[in-house]
Amino acid sequence: MSESSTSFYRLDERIQRFIWTEGWESLRDAQEAAIPLIINADRDVIIAAATATGKTEAAFLPALTHMLQSDELGLIVYISPLKALINDQFDRFDRLCEQLEVPVWPWHGDVSASIKTRFLSKRNGILLITPESLEAMLCNRGTSISTIFDRSTFFVVDELHAFIGSERGKQLQSLMHRIEQVVGRKIPRIGLSATLGDMNLAAEFLRSGESTSVAIVESRSSSSELKILVKGYEEPLVIIRSGNGDDEEPEPATPSLIATHLFKSLRGSNNLVFPNSRREVERFTHLLNNLCIQQQVPNEFWPHHGSLSKEIRAETEAALKQQNCPATAICTNTLELGIDIGSVKSVAQIGSPPSVASLRQRLGRSGRRKGEPAILRGYCIEDAIGGEASLATELRLNTIKMIAMISLLLEGWFEPPATNGFHLSTLIQQMLSAIAQYGGITMSQLYTLLCAQNAPFSCVSKVNFITLVRYLGQKEVLIQDSSGVLLHGRVGEKLVNHYTFYAAFVIDEEFRIVVNGKTLGTIPISQMLTVGQRILFAGKTWFIEEIDEVQKTIYVIRAFGGVPPSFSGSTGRTHTQVRQRMRNLLESNDIPSFLDEVARRFLAEARKGYTARNLGHTFFVDQGRVVYILTWLGDAANEAIACLISWRGFIAVPAGPGVEVLKGKYTTEDLLDALIDLAVDDSPPLDILLADVKNLQREKWDWALPDGLLRIAYASLYLDLEEALKWAKQIAAINTR
Prior knowledge:
Elements: H1 13-22, H2 29-38, E1 45-48, H3 55-68, E2 75-79, H4 83-100, E3 104-107, H5 113-122, E4 125-129, H6 131-140, H7 145-149, E5 152-157, H8 167-183, E6 189-193, H9 199-206, E7 215-218, E8 226-235, H10 254-266, E9 271-274, H11 278-294, E10 301-304, H12 310-321, E11 328-331, E12 346-350, H13 356-363, E13 374-383, H14 391-394, H15 397-410, H16 424-438, E14 441-442, H17 443-451, H18 462-474, E15 478-480, E16 485-488, H19 490-496, E17 510-515, E18 518-524, E19 534-537, E20 540-548, E21 553-558, H20 576-587, H21 597-612, E22 620-622, E23 626-630, H22 635-647, E24 651-655, E25 658-662, H23 668-680, H24 686-689, H25 707-718, H26 721-735
Parallel strand pairs: 1-6, 1-7, 2-4, 2-5, 3-4, 5-6, 8-13, 9-11, 9-12, 10-11, 12-13, 17-21
Antiparallel strand pairs: 14-16, 15-16, 17-18, 19-20, 20-21, 22-23, 23-25, 24-25
Helix pairs in contact: 2-3, 6-8, 6-16, 8-16, 10-11, 13-15, 15-20, 22-26, 23-26
């Protein structure tokens, strides 16, 4: 170990010996910086460093040193988003901690009761736990929480970015806060992540209201060489005959071509392939397995997504870890986080990723071996231009979006965490959980616990809190006894006693598409829906006649004639910075070196279409029945603009880089007038703005929110009214000169 490493010599001698035995030549820069910040256990710390740069050791080496130097062995609570990650970390810690005589305790649904009982008798060492198991502990062992966590020295939150801005993240904030309230002191928090777009927002998440006191460690380690190839594939033009709409969806031709390239490029090494949906994971796994059979070679391609059993996922993970047998996983974001899957040679991305942050996280799995580059293969699919091509096809937006995301990745930009959500769904869960923990609690005590200054739900006013409690009483979720204590109601008691209660999030649900009593299939819904809206499904255009939110069903009729909807949705929600970069690419002459011949052609065609439509100087695209307003803003702003335009009497929905508006009796001039009016008039209250919007119930407990609070919760998570109105004012200024 280098003599210049002062941090190394601050570690416990037994840890120093372990490091020498492991043959470490030096500490990483993040470890050098983090050790003095953590070792005294007197502050919160965020460690941001690329994958495989020693973040976990940067946290645990000084945390263990502090614990070993104390008079009494304490407890480090490690919180992970995944059970599989806990299992990996248990194997990782066990060898070191055995030498230190520090017990390591995994705790999740698959861990035996005997291990949990032994932990409860000792209550020291390292506890590896998920938020859901922590929730269950508070609900079911409320009277013992003080005893269990009294000796806690740290909360360590792994994959911090996976929690920020989500219901699960708000749950985690609340759980840590509630434990601190019971033990009567702050427990230092350590956040670990490879992908944090805004360190100040991340610090605010880690310690609400006290972000300035959070110490931040950002690794400056140089990354490995990066090799990128983006290949373009054109789906042949298919003529769909008009009729009753019952003809089958044509099977796309490009997946088999992409699978053939993957087969040739990936065989013989370990890789990850991300096709962006579970259905596509199954499609490409099937195609690649068939190629192995046809070529009479052993299968190297394995599926991995959330709908598969844990046994099948474990088989894929085990295949990736085998050193002598190459394996490639076709996966969703289930393998995006830090599960130990060994060394991965390359990452393939089919279609644009959900976000730049997601792309960075995925690419971080490649190029871990010293001297090996990280490799990214991107595959863009575009429909052939012909007939009544959509605007998205003309502008080759699938390709443009991927190029934009890669260019932002290369510049080191990725999306800042979303921290403005009210998360009222999770507030309901935490109210019920706190009642279970304390065996009953007054309304005043509950508000102080969860909603007071610096508490997890401090954005909730007393008026809204009282409104919520009363509504939950009407739904029999809560009751209040004669002394004023809140208890579980008839409905609430059933919910809390069910095993599904402990998770704050809901698995993404899909809506059925039904025409004339026949189910066409299901689609995930990530944006608002309105009656009269056109949607693209199974290669055809449909009008929405009715939306049944309870049954998760959309009733449609065929829409014949005219161009199809240009934008049929995508994975994830796109940030304004990505859309602005897409526009910049369309207005530029630069050609990225990582594009193949077809992708370069797509880029040229996109720029030609952009210029032909004069989109550098106009934001309206009139396509007969509909008008596209190209804002080049993110999804949250576009959804807000769509709501504001709908309030003015139009049928408008967010659509890719803009908003689609059904003209009906209106003209383009009427639409421009409406936009100018938006810039000068006051915005309506949310009750009016979202009155006709369906499918607002996105989160697990949204069904238990009164309409007014449901609209507040939805707007806080999905609408950016400020950015929308700023854009409207810019348009008004240009058109009123």
